[in-house]
Amino acid sequence: MRTEVNKVLEVLRNKSLKEEAKREKLRVLYAEMFDQEELSKWCLGRNWNKLSETQRNEFLPLFQQVLEKTYGDRILAYSDEKILFEREVPISKGRVEVQTRVVMKSKEVPFNYRVFQEKNGNWKVYDVVVENVSLVMNYRSQFNEILAKNDAEELLNILRKKVKGQKS
Questions:
Q1: What are phi and psi of 166, to 5 degrees?
Q2: What separation in angstroms does the CA of 45 have from each of 5, 48, 81, 147, 150?
Q3: What is the rounded CA–CA span in Å between residue 121 and residue 20?
Q4: What is the secondary structure of the chain as a DSSP string?
Q5: pTM of structure
């Protein structure tokens, strides 16, 4: 995790890169760090199995774009805060929480990565917990609420609108 986070910090600290170039480099790093399918499965929970293969194939890039729209500006607003790696806490077999803190001028923010080990030995992020708020649980709650009243197609419509910048 430390290596991957440091790559992100290098991009963010590079003053010679324009915003779109930074975004593109961060997209590549995101793909290396995160397992989009695993993240999506965790966010949808039991609802993952209710989506057809076609719907899953559409959901994956849509959800990735929603995450990018939601968190991209926040990440780009990084202004040289320090990131301290504290410890790794086992969650279950092949799953670990990497606990870090982002040190800002006025406060410190706990920022934890939940990772799993792939069959090839690589570690991938499937959840991020900031100030004790899980990205997965936040989205799972939203998706459960939508899917309790609507079908999977409506969830995809909502994500499509978010990607286009419309409110749902």
A1: -90, 155
A2: 27, 6, 34, 11, 16
A3: 32
A4: -HHHHHHHHHHHH-TTS-HHHHHHHHHHHHHHHB-HHHHHHHHHGGGGGGS-HHHHHHHHHHHHHHHHHHHHHHHHT--S-EEEEEEEEEEETTEEEEEEEEE-SS-EEEEEEEEEE-TTS-EEEEEEEETTEEHHHHHHHHHHHHHHHS-HHHHHHHHHHHHTT---
A5: 0.86
- Token reading at 27: 């997209």
Q: What tokens does 147 get?
A: 């899917």
- Which range among 40-44, 64-68, 74-78, 134-138 shows the weakest confidence by mean pLDDT? 74-78
Tokens matching residue 75:
């990440």
Tokens of 167: 């409110």
What would the pLDDT profile of 125-156 be if each residue is shown by its tens digit? 999 999 999 999 999 999 999 999 999 999 99
Q: How long is the chain?
A: 168
Contacts 24+ apart (CB under 8 A), 26-33: 26/72, 26/75, 27/68, 29/4, 30/64, 30/68, 32/4, 33/4, 33/8, 33/124, 33/125
